[in-house]
UniProtKB/TrEMBL annotation, chain A:
Residues 8-21, 231-248 have a biased composition (Low complexity). This is Sorting nexin-2. One of its GO terms (biological process) is early endosome to Golgi transport. Belongs to the sorting nexin family. Its main location: other. Pfam families: PX, Vps5.
Automatic annotation (TrEMBL), chain B:
This is Sorting nexin. Gene3D superfamilies: Arfaptin homology (AH) domain/BAR domain (1.20.1270.60), Phox-like domain (3.30.1520.10). The keyword Phosphoprotein does not apply. It comes from Pygocentrus nattereri (Red-bellied piranha). Pfam families: PX, Vps5.
Length: 633, 412
């Protein structure tokens, strides 16, 4: 895991370590502004208004531009994009599949970086020379996206050269995503792993679709922004520094390409066709662009989580938790043949896994993790062993958790940062309230199901009544009523499953996620504890040194001094680590909140739409019934 | 304790069961208000009449549920009315379910926010009120059906019920009588089973009998199912209250862009629960109540058939007795007299019964038609309201998005 280490170095500071790659944040060539501000603040705003975008763009563009000085060449070539193009590359990219675009961009960017880092400027835009570069990248993108998209993508890629292109890309992303975590994206792009950004975007396809349209409209803006962005580009590097890029900058082109490809795929991850194979449900995840399909067991998903949390949780990342194992539900699936409840269980799990994967790949750092890639691509995965609930490993895990909980209680952290204190409190109270809400929505689901069942029974009963009725018109009306009630029953049933899948599951997800958020606060606390312990130790060592001095024992003195030096180093290392974890936690929490509010909004609207639809159906049904009632003579 | 005085300013407004009363204005009865104290409900019965069998043209008396039952029972027991469908007695006021819920709510008060509790309480009070109004209404309908009936409206006991300005002081049935009543019922149903075996000579009654028996069991079932359905609909509406309240408290803690969405969502649910609550209560009023009423009415019609069948059996028995008497040439005249009486009674019963049953049928169809139309219209109305609520809410939520777009465009 070079991940953490790299990370630490980068976070540690604009240290020399990073110097090699274009990305290096510390080398803010023209950074006029302190990148950090941009970084920390922009995220929230970005989403809301265009301005934010700009900031994000700036960040992104800045980073890219500086490092890569992208060239906006080919864009014009693209079909519709021409006009737009002139203003903004972003458009072109936006319209078609984002993934494709993004991927190419990355390549381009990287190339730029490598080849000619400092070409930032609008002038470059006109230049076609860059195209060559582009071609190369295109070649790299051997994927088979649709032709049209592809071309666009290429154009973008070319564009990427010029700063504008980069910025455009960034814009696109930010805009589309709306709520997408622009900050992160920006940071990443700047870092050089623009691919990440892409990945993020791609996840939110729906938004994307909408976004696309708008993007085209906005394109002019983008231009402006790009220009603006060009100026602030300087800060970008610094941003990148702050951005926790897990990967070291110096990547070979091939690597980059690879990444890009991945991203593309990630865009359309879906878990489909859960099958009952032997004893377990397998799921296929497929990537649309390349029709990439792998089979995974449920335990593989858990295994992925285990791996990810092992690696990333300690750094303060929020690792999305997978759906819980349900022994009861599983046994039902195994035992029951065609039981509707088991079908529902499978569907529920499928949807939950899909959301889980989306959350993983939408996380910029997790997406970079080799295990994720492996999970998505590799044909055969070694069987995840430790995920079985009733295994020895599971038992060990339980014990670990218990000791963790105890140690957590013993740590008394005097919080220096009010932000963390407040956030933690917020998270805790939100957790409680979400649980309450979840229980209520569950009860709504149950009541609605009950209503559906009762309506069905009533429908049957009325049908019988209708058959007994000796007045023909009334009999007819009653059997019509029975039919209407029958349909309404179906409506209630559908609505119940909407209540569940759209609303209740969202809440369940977020209850789990809040658990992960709390865990990352815990990690921060642990880091703090380590630092404190080291400080105490250092204190002790100093005391012994003093004692030795007093006792005048020069032979041991040297050893004591060495120890002090050693512990001093440790203290500063732990302190840095703590700072780093804190920074990550803060960023992660902000990102989480953004994602949460986007998710909630999306789901609430979806939920309302489902309610709206069922009411519209209701109107239809009753309107059809009304003449029947009137026909009773 | 709950104490309610309900002013039914316009009783016609909430008339759920139309019984197609003929509009004879010679005797108009209504229950303008009622007082509820614990289990006792005191109804004010107001009468307006042009008939001179009453002392005054306009008067009011206070009556309790037991008085209504007494009136019903005396009518049923009057030999003269055996050939009529006696309007079913109003059911005993049932405040148990809302009371129980109120009790539960009190227990669960700690787990709810204040706002939630208030809303739940309001909801229960509304439910209580609805039950109360319904009770008043069925009592009123009972009297109105009596007053609109050509024979029953002239009943002496009925007039006493309406006019006597003192407490009727109908005793509650004591244990022995209760048991006696129970026993009588047992005998009656056993008798019913015995008699039902006898093939009727009259095609009309034979048909009517099978129809009513079948219809009764069906409508009984439907009533139970409809009750269950409306109850669960009510539960759904109540869930909205809780969800809305919780969403509000989450929104209060939230300070991101999500806050306003949550608030809007909560607000919408709050409105929705009212609409859904209305849907449930309208169904209850238009559908369940209709079924319930006709279930009782059919029971009354069945009772008529039973009395007729009983008379038929009596007549046949008297025939046999006459034969026997003739054989023994003993008490022939008495037996002949008896047989004549039975025949007379049976014929009379058959004749009025036929008339009653035919009019009952027409009445039922009209009532079903009216209620089904009203229900469908209400359902459409409520659903349309929901659609409007939903779409405005969705628009509002999207507006932030649209707003951004507009801004962008504007800048361009």
């Amino acid at each position: 895991m070079h991940f953490p280490s790299v990370f630490s170095s980068s976070t540690a500071s604009p240290l020399p370590t990073l110097s090699d790659s274009a990305m290096d944040p510390p080398l803010p060539v023209s950074s006029s502004e302190p990148p950090k501000d941009i970084f920390s603040e922009p995220p929230a705003d970005t989403f809301k208004d265009p301005l934010n975008k700009t900031s994000a763009e700036k960040a992104a563009s800045g980073g890219l531009s500086k490092a890569q000085a992208a060239v906006p060449v080919k864009v014009a070539a693209d079909e519709e994009l021409d006009d737009l193009f002139s203003d903004s590359l972003g458009e072109s990219g936006a319209a078609p599949v984002t993934d494709v675009l993004s991927a190419p961009q990355n390549d381009v960017i990287k190339k730029d970086i490598f080849e000619e880092p400092p070409k930032a400027s609008t002038d470059l835009f006109g230049d076609d020379d860059d195209e060559d570069l582009f071609k190369e990248p295109l070649g790299a993108m051997t994927k088979k996206p649709q032709g049209s998209l592809f071309t666009e993508a290429k154009s973008e890629a070319k564009a990427a050269r010029p700063e504008q292109s980069n910025s455009a890309a960034a814009d696109l992303f930010t805009e589309e995503a709306f709520t997408v975590t622009p900050v992160v994206a920006a940071a990443k792009s700047s870092v050089n792993t623009s691919s990440k950004t892409n990945g993020l975007h791609s996840d939110e396809e729906d938004l994307f679709a909408e976004a696309t349209v708008e993007l085209s409209l906005d394109s002019p803006h983008n231009d402006r922004r790009k220009r603006e962005a060009a100026k602030p580009s300087a800060p970008a590097p610094s941003l990148s520094a702050s951005a926790s890029t897990s990967k070291p900058q110096p990547k070979t082109l091939e690597e980059l390409e690879e990444e890009e490809k991945e991203d593309t795929f990630d865009l359309n991850i879906s878990v489909t066709n859960p099958e009952k194979v032997g004893k377990s449900t397998t799921s296929l995840s497929m990537f649309r662009s390349k029709q990439f399909t792998v089979r995974r067991r449920f335990s593989d998903f858990l295994g992925l989580y285990e791996k990810l949390s092992e690696k990333h949780a300690q750094n303060g990342y929020i690792v999305p938790p997978p759906p819980e194992k349900s022994i009861l539900g599983m046994t039902k699936v195994k035992v029951g043949k065609e039981d509707p409840s088991s079908a529902e269980f499978v569907e529920r799990r499928r949807a939950a896994l899909e959301r889980y994967l989306h959350r993983v790949v939408s996380h910029p750092s997790l997406l970079q993790d080799p295990d994720v890639r492996e999970f998505l691509e590799k044909e055969e995965l070694p069987r995840a062993v430790s995920t079985q609930a009733l295994s020895g490993a599971g038992f060990l895990k339980m014990i670990n958790k218990a000791t963790d909980a105890v140690s957590k209680m013993t740590i008394k952290m005097n919080e220096s940062d009010v932000w963390f204190e407040e956030k933690l409190q917020e998270v805790e109270s939100e957790d409680q309230q979400l649980r309450k809400l979840h229980a209520m929505v569950e009860s709504l689901v149950n009541h609605r199901k009950e209503l559906s069942v009762n309506t069905a029974m009533f429908a049957k009963s009325v049908a019988m009544l209708g058959s007994s009725e000796d007045n023909t018109a009334l009999s007819r009306a009653l059997s019509q009523l029975a039919e209407v009630e029958d349909r309404i029953e179906q409506l209630h049933q559908d609505q119940a499953s909407n209540d569940f899948f759209i609303f209740a599951e969202l809440l369940a997800d977020y209850i789990r996620l809040l658990g992960a958020v709390r865990a990352c606060f815990d990690q921060r606390m642990k880091a703090w504890q380590r630092w404190q312990d080291a400080q105490n130790m250092l204190q002790k060592k100093r005391e012994t040194e003093a004692k030795l001095l007093w006792a005048n024992k020069p032979d041991k003195l040297q050893q004591a001094k060495d120890e002090i030096v050693e512990w001093e180093a440790k203290v500063s290392q732990y302190e840095r680590e703590f700072e780093r974890v804190s920074a990550t936690v803060r960023k992660e929490v902000i990102r989480f909140e953004k994602e949460k509010s986007r998710d909630f909004k999306k789901q609430i609207i979806r939920y309302l739409e489902s309610l709206l639809q069922s009411q519209q159906q209701l109107i239809k049904y009753w309107e059809a019934f009304l003449p029947e009632a009137k026909a009773i003579a | 304790m709950i104490k309610l005085i309900v002013q039914l300013s316009s009783p016609s407004l909430l008339r759920s069961v139309s019984v197609d009363l003929n509009n004879d204005s010679s005797l108009l009865i209504d229950i303008p208000d009622a007082l509820c104290e614990r289990d006792k409900v005191k109804f004010t019965v107001h009468t307006k009449t042009t008939l001179n069998s009453f002392q005054k043209p306009d008067f009011s008396v206070s009556r309790q549920h037991e008085d209504f039952i007494w009136l019903h029972d005396t009518l049923v027991e009057t030999e003269e009315y055996a050939g009529l469908i006696i309007p079913p007695a109003p059911p005993k006021p049932d405040f148990e379910s809302p009371r129980e819920k109120m009790h539960k709510l009190g227990e669960g008060e700690a787990t709810m926010t204040k706002e939630e509790y208030t809303k739940m309480k309001q909801e229960l009070e509304a439910e209580y009120l609805a039950v109360f109004k319904k009770t008043v209404q069925v009592h009123e309908i009972f009297l109105q059906r009596l007053s609109s009936h050509p024979n029953l409206s002239k009943d002496r006991n009925f007039q006493i019920f309406l006019e006597y300005d003192q407490d009727l002081s109908v005793r509650r049935k004591n244990a022995k009588e209760m048991f006696g009543g129970f026993f009588k019922n047992m005998v009656k149903s056993a008798d019913e089973v015995l008699i039902s075996g006898i093939k009727d000579v009259d095609e009309f009654f034979e048909q009517e009998k099978t129809f009513l028996l079948d219809y009764f069991s069906k409508i009984k079932d439907s009533t139970a199912k409809a009750e269950k359905m409306t109850r669960s609909h009510k539960n759904v509406a109540d869930d909205y209250i809780h969800i809305s309240a919780t969403l509000n408290s989450i929104a209060a803690d939230d300070n991101t862009a999500l806050k306003q969405h949550l608030e809007k969502f909560a607000e919408l649910l709050e409105k929705l629960r009212k609409v859904e609550g209305r849907v449930a209560s309208d169904q209850e009023l238009k559908l369940t109540e209709l079924l319930r009423y006709y279930m009782r009415d059919i029971q009354a019609a069945k009772d008529l058939l039973y009395r007729r069948a009983r008379a038929l059996a009596d007549y046949e028995n008297s025939n046999k007795a006459l034969d026997k008497a003739r054989l023994k040439s003993k008490d022939v005249a008495q037996a002949e007299e008896n047989q004549k009486q039975c025949l007379l009674k049976f014929d009379k019963l058959s004749e009025s019964g036929k008339k009653e049953l035919t009019s009952f049928k027409g009445r039922r169809v009209v009532a079903f038609r009216k209620n089904l139309i009203e229900m469908a219209e209400l359902e459409i109305k409520h659903a349309k309201q929901c659609v409007i609520l939903h779409s405005t809410c969705i628009d509002l939520m999207d507006s932030s998005f649209i707003f951004a777009v507009v801004q962008v465009r504007g800048r361009r």
